[in-house]
Design a protein that fits this description.
325 residues, alpha/beta, seven-stranded parallel beta sheet, two-stranded parallel sheet, 14% strand
C-alpha cells in the first residue's frame, strides 16, 4: 500500500516509516524541509503539488504539528494550535479534491483532550473532556482547546469516500534519541528519576511496537471511525512509572522533585510542567472492544524491552531495527 505521512519527520513519523517500509509498503513523507528521497516539500497550510501524492494513495497518516516539548508561551501555544488545525484542514482539502481518494485518513490527536483526574480512567465512551478542572493552571485549558479544534478540523472535512480516525495518542515510548523515553531515561540514569510533586498523577503511555500495530489494525478495520485512544490499558501513577523505569535501568533510587523544582527543571529543558503534572488516566476502550491485543500492556515489561533496545542502539555503528508487526 501507499502511505502518505504529512509531518512524518518527527519521532512518531520515524517509527512508522521504519516499520511500514520494512513491511513492504511505499511510504512518502510531507515535510517543510525535505532532505532525502521519499520526502516532498509542503508548507502545512496551503494546497500545492504535494496533493498529487494523496490522490491515489491508500492511507494518509497526518502527524503534522509543532512539538509540545517547548515553553507554553502565548506565541508557542498559538503555533501549536495553528500548525495542527491548518495542516489538518489542508489535508482534508487535498483528500476532498482527489480523483482517487485514500480509503482511510488517520489523524494524529492527543490523550490530553481528557480531564486531569485521579478517580477513574477516561475511555472514548465515558471519558470527561478537560478544560474546566478546578485547581489547575488556566493555560491547561488551551491544550484541551487545541486538541478539540484539531479533531474538529478533521470532522469538518468533506471526505465522504475516506474513513476518518482521530488517534488520541498517549506518549509513545521508543528508544530513539530525543524522544520522551530517551529524556526520562537520561534523568533516571542521573539519579533524578523520582516522583514529581508527590507522583500521584497518572501517566498514560504506549510502547512503540503497539503503536505501529494499532495503526495497522485501524487501517484494516473498516468498521472503526472517529476518536480512538492509542494508549496501553494500564496507566499508572507517576511514582510507579518512574519506579519501573529505574528498575529497568538498574538504578536503585531517584531524587524526588517538588512542584517548584519541576518548574526549574522544565525551564532548563525548555519544556513545560503540564507534561509532568497533568494526570492523564486514559485507557483504550475502543481498541480493546475491537479485539486488539497489546504485546506490552504493563509498564514494567515495556520498560525492560525499551531499555534493552536502547542499550543495543547506543552501541557505535548500530542502527535501529525495524519493528515487527
Amino acid at each position: 500500500m501507499r502511505f502518505v505521512l504529512p509531518g512524518g519527520t518527527g519521532q512518531i513519523g520515524t517509527i512508522l516509516e521504519r516499520a511500514l517500509t520494512a513491511a513492504g509498503h511505499d511510504v512518502l513523507i510531507l515535510t517543510r524541509r525535505p532532505t532525502r528521497e521519499g520526502e516532498v516539500c509542503w508548507d502545512g497550510a496551503t494546497l500545492g503539488r504535494w496533493a498529487e501524492l494523496i490522490d491515489g494513495s491508500d492511507v494518509v497518516v497526518n502527524l503534522a504539528g509543532r512539538s509540545v516539548s517547548c515553553r507554553y508561551t502565548p506565541a508557542n501555544l498559538k503555533a501549536m494550535m495553528d500548525s495542527r488545525v491548518d495542516s489538518t484542514r489542508v489535508v482534508g482539502e487535498a483528500i476532498a479534491a482527489a480523483a482517487r481518494p485514500p480509503r482511510v485518513w488517520l489523524q494524529m490527536s492527543t490523550a490530553t483532550v481528557y480531564s486531569h483526574r485521579f478517580d477513574a480512567a477516561n475511555d472514548e465512551a465515558t471519558g470527561i473532556a478537560g478544560g474546566s478542572e478546578p485547581g489547575v493552571p488556566d493555560y491547561w485549558s488551551y491544550s484541551v482547546e487545541i486538541a478539540e479544534n484539531w479533531e474538529r478540523a478533521q470532522e469538518r472535512a468533506d471526505t465522504p469516500h475516506t474513513r476518518k480516525v482521530a488517534l488520541r495518542s498517549a506518549m509513545v515510548m521508543s528508544p530513539d534519541r530525543g524522544g520522551v523515553f530517551d529524556v526520562l531515561s537520561r534523568l533516571t540514569r542521573l539519579g533524578l528519576g523520582g516522583p514529581v510533586a508527590g507522583g500521584a498523577q497518572y501517566v498514560s503511555w504506549i510502547h512503540d511496537q503497539d503503536f505501529v500495530r494499532a495503526v495497522e489494525f485501524l487501517v484494516d478495520r473498516d468498521d472503526l471511525a472517529g476518536p480512538v485512544n492509542l494508549t496501553a490499558p494500564a496507566p499508572l501513577p507517576q511514582r510507579a512509572f518512574m519506579r519501573g523505569l529505574r528498575s529497568a535501568w538498574g538504578v536503585p533510587a531517584g531524587l524526588p522533585a517538588t512542584r517548584w523544582m519541576a518548574e526549574l527543571g522544565a525551564f532548563a529543558l525548555r519544556s513545560d510542567t503540564e507534561l509532568l503534572l497533568k494526570s492523564r488516566r486514559v485507557v483504550p476502550g475502543r481498541l480493546r472492544d475491537a479485539g486488539f491485543a497489546f504485546r506490552y500492556a504493563e509498564w514494567p515489561q515495556a520498560a525492560d524491552d525499551l531499555v534493552q533496545r536502547a542499550r543495543i542502539t547506543r552501541r557505535p555503528g548500530v542502527t535501529p531495527v525495524p519493528l515487527a508487526s
